[in-house]
Design goal:
The chain is an alpha/beta fold. 51% of the residues lie in helices and 19% in strands. It has a 3-stranded mixed beta sheet with strand order 4-1-7. Strands 2-8-6 form a 3-stranded mixed beta sheet. The longest helix is centred in the middle third of the chain and has 30 residues. The protein is elongated and about 90 Å long.
Length: 204
């Protein structure tokens, strides 16, 4: 019997018992055998604390062979899997909102300071004063139309560039932030897998 399996590179679970269906998708011509394979228990995480473990396709093959030694496994996905276990914790809503508010404030003021520091370095105020003087022949007496237009355009440009405005997006393409996060996640996963293999901590 042939079993097709497509696993994910990294998975996060909140229950201690790790089963095959938590790692990826199983397909077989027999629904009964598919159900057996999907519910095979691979590992049990210890109580109380978060943890991560690295498994290989070899470990999965050995477990499935316990059901049917004649079975043939065809892997369509990753050969190594990182499983993150996050213990369930009850968190009050006000704490979650406070954390979100804190992150928003840090991001907002951090970005504001960065933009102001950049504008100060390039002398944007002096540049606008020069442009105003060239256009009108008079010296600028303070913030005017150029500064207001620049501020509005900067905000609109950031929203368009990051492709998000509240819950709406301007296109189906991922945002630059999402792309960088996926690249970072992949680098972290590769580091964990390589480190576990060198230290002999991979489940095989």
């Amino acid at each position: 019997m042939i079993v097709y399996f497509k696993g994910e590179e990294s998975v996060c679970i909140t229950h201690r018992d790790l089963r095959v269906k938590d790692i990826g998708t199983v397909y077989c011509s027999s629904p009964e055998f598919t159900y057996q394979v999907e519910n095979l228990k691979l590992y049990q995480f210890p109580k109380g604390s978060n943890a991560k473990e690295v498994f290989s396709i070899v470990n999965l093959l050995e477990k499935i062979k316990e059901i049917d030694k004649e079975m043939e496994l065809v892997n369509l996905g990753e050969t190594d899997f990182i499983i993150y276990y996050k213990a369930r914790t009850e968190c009050a809503k006000w704490k979650q909102r406070a954390k979100i508010l804190f992150v928003c404030l840090v991001a907002f003021f951090g970005a504001a300071i960065s933009i102001m520091a950049y504008n100060n370095d390039v002398g944007i105020e002096q540049l606008f004063a020069k442009v105003y003087e060239w256009l009108t022949g008079k010296k600028a007496g303070g913030p005017g139309l150029l500064e207001i237009s620049y501020s509005i355009g900067l905000g609109v440009g950031i929203v368009v560039f990051f492709n998000h405005a509240a819950r709406k997006t301007f296109s189906d393409e991922p945002t630059p932030f999402e792309v960088q996060m996926r690249l970072y996640e992949k680098d972290v996963n590769n580091t964990f897998i390589t480190g576990a293999g060198r230290k002999g901590e991979e489940h095989e």
